[in-house]
Structures are given as structure tokens and as C-alpha cells.
Amino acid sequence: MSYLQNHLLIAMPSLEDPFFERSVIYLCEHNEEGAMGLTLNVPLELNLYDLLVQMKLPEPSEHLKEVPVLAGGPVHNDRGFVLHSPQPGFHSSRQLSDELMITTSLDILSTLGTDAAPEQYLVTLGYAGWEAGQLEQELLENSWLTVPASLDLLFDTPMVDLWQAATATLGINIWQMPQQAGHA
């Protein structure tokens, strides 16, 4: 099996898990040891401004009140992750692709809303994780569709439209998918 790092997982309509139903997940890592991703379309009842105030960071920009913080997944939902366009200089960053980095250190948060911030970014609390072989089994069970990630889907598509927009890149309407899929 080829690995799906830098791809999106799109929940099939039949996936009824309360957290993952109709979710779109960016896979930051996928290898023989398992997978780790960030859910991109489940907002928390928390905006970025309020999060930065709670963390006692310097007075954030008012426009961050319009930026949602996302529920990245059910694992370690007390840990923050910033998925962003490449920008070096943060303490704990990892290059995911030519177009994306992930940072987990606090130093990036103080730049958000300023000229020093990455051009594009999403902030999540928590992540989705799979043990070795677990995601592959879920793929065999037809729980997920996969598409290569694109900056347009990640940063420019409204969150409420992401599930359908990601599926549309495959040339299908998600609502026309059967609830149960078989294997030939």
C-alpha cells in the first residue's frame, strides 16, 4: 500500500462515528507505524482571539474573533497544532510538503494576526491518530475516500462546504454514494 501523507481523508456517508461523521482530515503523517491527521471542518465553540487571551499571550488582533479554532481530533485535545504555509523560524516546526508545515510550539501563536504570521494557517486542538494498520483497515472497510490535499481545499474552501467540495474533486456527488459499498 502506498502511504497517504499530504492527502485528505473524506468520511463516507456511512461513517457514523460522532466525531468523524462528515469530516475531512488532512494526513500529516502516514507510514508503517500508523497515521496522524488534523480534522479541518469541525469548529470548536472557541475563536482564535479567545484562545490567545486564555493563554495570556500579548493582546491579539480583534479580527481573530472571526477565526475558528478547530477540533483537530479526539487525541490530546489539550495540545495545539498550527497547519500553515511555509515559514521558518518557529521553535517546533516540521515541513510536511513544499507548501505546508505544522508547528506545535507557542512562538507561532504570538505571530497570528500580525505581519509576522504565516500567510495561511489553521489552528486545531487535538489530532486524529491511527495505530499501525488501523487506517488501512478503515480504508478497506470503505470508511474513507482519499484525495491529494490542495491549498484551495485547506485554506480557501469554507469549512461548511469542505466535505462536499473535497468529494467533488473526485468528480462525484457525495450524496449519490451508496450507504454500503462492496468489494469486487
From TrEMBL:
It comes from the Bacteria. SUPFAM superfamilies: VC0467-like. PANTHER family: UNCHARACTERIZED PROTEIN YQGE, UPF0301 PROTEIN YQGE. HAMAP family: UPF0301. Belongs to the UPF0301 (AlgH) family. This is UPF0301 protein GCM10023095_25560. It comes from Pseudaeromonas paramecii.
